[in-house]
Amino acid sequence: MLDILAIAAWGILFLKYWLTGKLALLIHPNYFGLVVVTGSVLLVMAAIQGIQLVRSRRQRASKKRAIPIDPAEMQHITLFPPGWASALLLITAIVGLIITPQVFASQTAIDRGITESAISTRYQPKSFRSTIPPEARSLIDWVRTLNANPEPDAYTGQKARIQGFVIHAPELSGRYLLLSRFVLTCCAADAYPVGLPVKLDRDRQAYKPDTWLEVEGRMITETLNGKRQLTVEATALKPIPEPKNPYDY
Amino acid sequence: MDRQLNNAFTIFLSLLVEAIPFLLLGVLLSGLLLIFVDERRLTSMMPRHPILGALVGSCFGFLFPVCECGNVPVARRLLIQGVPIPVAVGFLLAAPTINPIVIWSTWVAFKQQPEIVWLRVIFSLLIATIIGCVFSVQKDPRPILQKLVAKSIPDRAEKNLESDSQPMLLQSGTFLLGEGNSPIPMDESLLSSAVKKTRGQKLRLLLDNTIQELRELGAVLVLGSAVAALIQVAAPRDLILSLGQDPVSSIVAMLVLGGVISICSTVDSFFALSFASVFTSGSLLAFLVFGPMVDIKGIGLMLSVFRPKAIIYLFALAALLTLLLTLIFNLHFS
Questions:
Q1: Which percentage of chain B shows pLDDT scores above 90?
Q2: How many folded domains does chain A comprise?
Q3: Measured between CA atoms, how close is B15 to chain A, in angstroms?
Q4: What is the pLDDT of residue A215?
């Protein structure tokens, strides 16, 4: 009985995440289909098992015996006391249904270490297109371009228009903020932040951490913390609502 | 604090949402094979040569896609049916890794580092084959097995030898002409297998089996994901970095983690993935290779097959070989 509830709850949870669009906060869109199918299969399994449970109870009531299944044939192992495993699964699913997963914020990005170009070891660009005009490049496109050619001077003067959320990086002075996004390859567990420094004409306190901005400007090279870095010299900053899918891929 | 809890919860859920589809697939497939395939016919075709046997046993995972929780019972059945030790040991160690679902899920998780995917397969094969060969030195398997298993071997093993030397037509007994042209001896092996069940019963058995395994393995997965999420959020980053960036300590840490965390091999790559940014690739490999071979919850199960001494050898050899191979990888190739 507990099994059926637990499996049904997970099926509902999967489909709920899909229907409410929260799946994008958790995993890469490539695997949405997998989750939807799994959710449906789980629900069907729970339904069949539920029908059978009702039927066998009725049969027992009418003194007809169901065909017993030899437990030795299952050959499965039990690690938990009876009922615990299903209870654990059920509770997890219910908590999942109640609490909405949150998007990672700027503090998490600082904790995880923001990469401007170091992601080259992890990311081997497959769909790299250098033909995108500079002003059409997204933040991620810029970071990828920078991976292919790390010399910041190569981009001096190019126009930029990028979107991301604000990070007040402690190692940068008050005139700079880091515009950042999380990149996902599989699921939230491996989300890692990438970002570009933005040079402001005022103190960064005007832009609170975690607000989403669209920054327009021009590319320059700045020496930050003793390192030459590609920087956006902002000419216009516009607050934008948090995108429905905050990650990039 | 609040934010960290929330992050941990998000990571926890994302691991589960990504992993459960693969878990379901693995459980369904292994259930299908448990119920619909007659492994006794397969065991009669096993090679006796130690290296070949260990290799074939390792690749058995493609036929029985079980993760480490399902492979001990299968290995036990294989042994009881008189399969040579290298085949059984090879199967025991490599089958949880060398199977299509595990390879797929590893690829999903480590698409950015494809070398992890194929090195996981190669290292597992290599280690399983080597250990299988080591165990083949023991010609008579009975002393290293538990009494119950050992006792059921002798007459079967002799029977196997007998049927090797004698053409089928000269053997006595009842035979069935099944699919293919070779007659199947009508003995207990047939009676006890899946033949006598109706399709409806089989499907019910499959559903029951799937739900039971999903419950057990799912609960382990929940605990494992919780640990992974908590480590990622709560462990001091300096500690993790100093541990994870060193070529030797990172591997040792991951070996320990692989032994302790009993997460199913179909989904352990997602667990490893959450360490990918801070731990060396070699150490991730160590986790992915060693984890499925050995874990704490499996020991009780292993004890139902082998005597303790054999298990200690098995684990120690597996740990050392994994350390060696992944250290070579860490020092020379990354």
A1: 13
A2: 2
A3: 7
A4: 92
